[in-house]
Design brief:
heterodimer, A: alpha+beta, Aldehyde Oxidoreductase, domain 3, Aldehyde Oxidoreductase, domain 4, 3 domains, 5-stranded mixed β-sheet, 20 helices, B: alpha+beta, Ubiquitin-like (UB roll), DNA polymerase, domain 1, 5 helices, 5 strands, globular
């Protein structure tokens, strides 16, 4: 794999229209809220009006008497069951029983014949609370004597890591310049527009069917098996189409998910719960707000000598994925710049806010923002060009066959950062642009640069199962089965394309269904940019296995050695003599009919995630979290209104992206434009949950701002091909890394335009206005002194 | 609240309907729950995301924010009524071919806003398109390919390629 010549491929490496696009564009695609089952009831969750309170009593008697109510549950129905991201962090109940830890946490649920009755019944449930003082920032949470969110977790510490590589103190002492600053990333919505929904029913008393918007369906598979004491064979999770995820809630469980299943059990009828957008924006998982103090030492030539991170983070009420998030804030610091000394101290605290969790650019997003802004500050102080200082530090693309190892034992076979940066600087004509006048009337223009990296093909112990089944039907059509879930990124299309490519058939010959745990192989699902790299490898192996079985027949039929048989363009022929051939359909039919009872089923799994290097160690910060790593460089131009502080990203922006080899160029472009640059613009300039003691003040898409089509910049994507030896057909992840580089590029551009630093995201107009005003006043004072 | 059912006569995707609905029923709920036309999506419920956009007498409206009874005597077209049988509308065709669609949740609304635009203004500028779909929120496409797809469709409908 990792072939050099794309002409060898029939399907991959080109723009491939999505296999499911027609269903989506005609409205036929079914999302979770669209599912209806005969005899179905509607469920509704009763939520706490307190952010932190002891539950003294729950009285459901009035609700029970409401006509149309079919079942009522409270947390006690779950018999003390707790769950969490990993075995030691099972700190959450399906519905709170003793204490609520964030506002609107679920405490009971009702199933009724329609939604209005279910909601009315929830209003009739009387819950007696004893309100408790809460902690709403990590700085309150860390104070001595602060109220504890979890009584068994002293200091409110969710998770902390302290790593040390090389000799940071010595390196700082010997550095020409040391610069330290604090940056802040806000609490952000995941941004999916589809509110989570679930339908559950029990076809038999020990068999469960659960259809929900789940990007990682094998998480509820395991969790519900444990919760309801069912063998895994009896838990059937079926995924409908999913209206985006971006990490977090749709990987995990919600109060509503558990409630649907328990209500369906109790009522003996199917139950559906559809979250409202208000529920989604007040209770779903968010991006961690972090305070990142980063200290960077450099030599006189701008080469980085050491980095020390001190990070404080708000994990919210429950642990959820926080152990992974905070590990990720540091594990990739050794890329894309050479880093000889590195220290990482990160602490996440419990608060009485809704829980935080994974979100695109998971963890890496925060430290990339701080580092890329600091690099510009240092470049300016040393009088080095901002592109040049990056070039001086970039890890060069390793020679083929060699591996670059970071100080914390992360292994890189390919790194296209240097080429990416060169390309974007050329594309925006930086050499000419940097001399241009920045101010035009009441507008200022500036250009910013940043680079980014991201892991692909996440390696997490106990979460690496990843397999594929390729079932060749007797007419030559193919069913491709995978447990990997497409939440919108296009992995179903890429998987089908890979199978078709390997078997030498057309894309339309390969069919994929949505994940169904009754049939598809176990898989961790969509997170950590893992699907294309790992499920892609599994698809290759499964298709190769099916091909091997067919090759035996072809060799017999064509009187040739098995190694000589080639599958291409729906023909199977002998390499040395193409005339000795048999059409694909005919070969398949012969193979299926030749031996009675035979069916052609190929099996394959991904081995790279576990076989490649050493698994990452959370306690030491060493080892490979990825199978390989993507790289990005980006240039973004902004226009700042000097009177109002409004910042607009112009169309003059370019992202160069090294995803190894783009398997579907069209999908990579749409992902990089939308899923990273555009989301980056949104993160840099718009998005932030405003909170008041655990209450989300802007829990709707009117007050929670995001860019609209008229303010969306038209950006350009450049592909940098590095053909990674560890990815399927040379591929690495696409577009999660570029999510991380967008906000610093924009903040750097604002500084380039105006000279002000916005170190706490987002750069909303008011913040920019005050920063500009402060700068003007300082300058005026200086003038007066003269 | 007066929950006495009221009569609603309207046309949906060219088909006449006579229903009895609650006065408070939203057009969105009647389309999705009564007529089972689930291609119109429920997103924000406050007219902010545009996932529920339908065409009412050719205009793009948010089905979450008008009462079903306001459609009385009028013509509604939903995403299910845009294609001509198996033949996709040029807007749909362009969105598929141009790779605009990702998760697809906003797609129905995008198509309906674009359709209303092209009915009113067959030769829109890029700025016109941006304004026409400004009420349609998309989390993952960055709008760029949707906007370009509408341009492609408009050209095609004008007889160009």
């Amino acid at each position: 794999m990792g072939k050099e010549h794309t002409e060898e491929y029939s399907i991959i490496g080109k723009p491939i229209p999505r296999v499911e696009a027609r269903l989506k564009v005609t409205g036929q695609a079914k999302y979770a809220a669209d599912i209806e089952v005969a005899n179905m009831l509607w469920g509704y969750v009763k939520r706490s009006p307190h952010a932190h309170a002891r539950i003294l009593n729950i009285d459901t008697s009035k609700a029970e008497k409401l006509p149309g109510v079919k079942a009522i549950i409270t947390g006690k129905d779950f018999n003390g069951f707790t769950w969490g991201w990993s075995q030691p962090t099972r700190d959450e109940e399906p519905l709170a029983t003793k204490k609520v830890r964030y506002l609107y946490e679920g405490v009971a649920a009702v199933a009724a014949i329609d939604e209005d009755i279910a909601q009315e019944a929830c209003d009739l449930i009387e819950v007696e609370y004893e309100p408790l003082p809460g902690v709403f920032t990590p700085f309150e949470a860390m104070k001595e004597g602060a109220p504890l969110v979890h009584e068994n977790r002293p200091g409110n510490i969710t998770v902390e890591y302290h790593w040390n590589f090389g000799d940071v103190e010595k390196a700082f002492a010997e550095s020409y310049l040391v610069r330290e600053d604090t940056f802040q990333t806000p609490r952000m919505a995941k941004g999916y527009i589809e509110p989570p929904a679930t339908v559950a029913y029990w076809p038999e008393s020990d068999r469960l069917v659960f259809q929900g918007a789940k990007g990682s369906p094998y998480f509820p598979y395991r969790i519900l098996s444990r919760c309801f004491k069912l063998p895994l064979s009896n838990v059937r999770i079926i995924t409908p189409f999913i209206g985006c995820d971006f990490g977090g809630t749709k990987n995990d469980m919600t109060n509503g998910d558990f409630s649907t299943v328990m209500l369906a059990k109790k009522a003996g009828r199917p139950v559906k719960i559809v979250a409202s957008q208000f529920d989604t924006l007040t209770t779903d998982l968010r991006r961690h707000p972090m305070w990142i103090t980063m200290k960077v030492g450099v030599a006189k030539d701008g080469k980085i000598t050491a980095i020390h991170n001190k990070i404080v983070s708000d994990g919210g009420a429950y642990t959820r994925m926080s152990p992974l998030t905070h590990f990720l804030t540091g594990i990739c610091m050794g890329m894309p710049y050479h880093l000889p000394n590195f220290k990482h101290d990160v602490t996440c605290y419990f608060t009485n806010n809704p829980s935080s969790a994974a979100m695109r650019g998971h963890g890496i997003y925060h430290t990339t923002f701080a580092r890329e802004c600091l690099l510009d500050m240092i470049a300016d102080e040393l009088g080095i060009d901002r592109v040049e200082i990056r070039h001086r530090n970039i890890i060069k693309n390793p020679e083929p066959g060699t591996i670059y190892e970071t100080i914390n034992n992360v292994h890189i076979a390919t790194a296209g950062t240097e080429e990416c940066l060169t390309k974007v600087a050329e594309a925006v004509k930086w050499e000419e642009g940097k001399k241009k006048e920045r101010i035009k009337g009441n507008k200022a223009y500036g250009m910013g640069f940043a680079t980014g990296t991201y892991l692909s093909g996440t390696q997490l112990s106990a979460h690496n199962a990843c397999a594929a089944i390729v079932r060749v039907c007797e007419d030559g059509s193919v069913n491709y089965l995978t447990g990997a879930t497409d939440v919108g990124m296009g992995s179903d299309t890429v998987g089908c394309a890979i199978v078709a490519e390997v078997l030498g058939i057309d894309l339309k010959d390969v069919d994929i269904k949505r994940v169904d745990t009754a049939f598809t192989p176990a898989d961790p699902g969509s997170y950590g940019s893992r699907v294309t790299v790992l499920a892609g490898e599994a698809a290759i192996n499964a298709a190769e296995d099916a091909k091997k079985q067919l090759r035996e027949f072809a060799a017999k039929k064509l009187g040739a050695m098995e190694e000589e048989i080639v599958f291409k363009n729906k023909q199977v022929f002998v390499q040395s003599n193409h005339a000795r051939s048999v059409p694909w359909e005919r070969l398949v039919r012969m193979a299926c009919y030749d031996a009675p009872g035979r069916v052609i089923i190929g099996r394959g799994h991904s081995k790279r995630a576990t076989d490649l290097h050493t698994l990452a160690d959370f306690s030491t910060g060493k080892g490979d979290i990825g199978t390989n790593y993507s790289f990005t460089a980006q240039a973004a131009e902004v226009e700042v209104d000097l009177e109002t502080g409004v910042v607009r990203c112009t169309d003059n922006s370019v992202i160069a992206h090294d995803c190894g080899f783009p398997l579907n160029t069209q999908a990579v472009e749409t992902q990089v434009i939308g899923g990273s640059y555009h989301q980056g613009v949104s993160a840099a300039l718009y998005e932030e949950f405003k909170m008041d003691k655990g209450l989300t003040l802007n829990a709707n898409f009117v007050d929670y701002k995001r860019p609209r089509a008229y303010e969306a910049p038209m950006t350009e994507v450049l592909h940098v091909i590095t053909n990674d030896p560890f990815g399927p057909f040379g591929a690495k992840e696409a577009s999660e890394g570029s999510t991380c580089s967008a906000p610093p590029a924009i903040i750097n551009a604002i500084h380039d335009a105006t000279g002000v630093w916005i170190k706490d995201l987002p750069a909303q107009p008011e913040k920019v206005y005050w920063a500009l005003k402060e700068k003007r006043e300082k300058e005026q004072k200086k003038e007066k002194k003269k | 609240m007066n929950d006495e059912l009221k009569e609603l006569r309207f046309s949906v995707n060219g088909k006449p309907y006579e229903l009895k609905v609650k006065p408070k029923a939203l057009l969105l709920d009647v389309l999705r729950k009564e007529l089972k036309l689930t291609g119109t999506r429920t997103g924000c419920e406050v007219s902010a995301c545009g996932a529920c956009t339908v065409n009412l007498d050719g205009m793009a409206v948010r089905a979450c924010s008008i009462l079903a009874l306001q459609a009385n005597g009028r013509e509604v077209v939903t995403i299910e009524g845009v294609a001509d049988g198996d033949k996709l509308h040029p807007i749909q065709e362009a969105m598929v071919a141009h790779g605009a669609i990702e998760c697809g949740f906003c797609t129905s609304g995008m198509v309906m806003s674009a359709r209303a635009l092209l009915l009113e203004n067959p030769k829109p500028t890029r700025e016109d398109i941006r304004r026409a779909v400004q009420g349609n929120m998309c989390a993952d496409s960055g709008y760029v390919k949707y906007i370009e797809a509408v341009e492609i469709a408009a050209k095609k409908m004008q007889g160009g390629e």
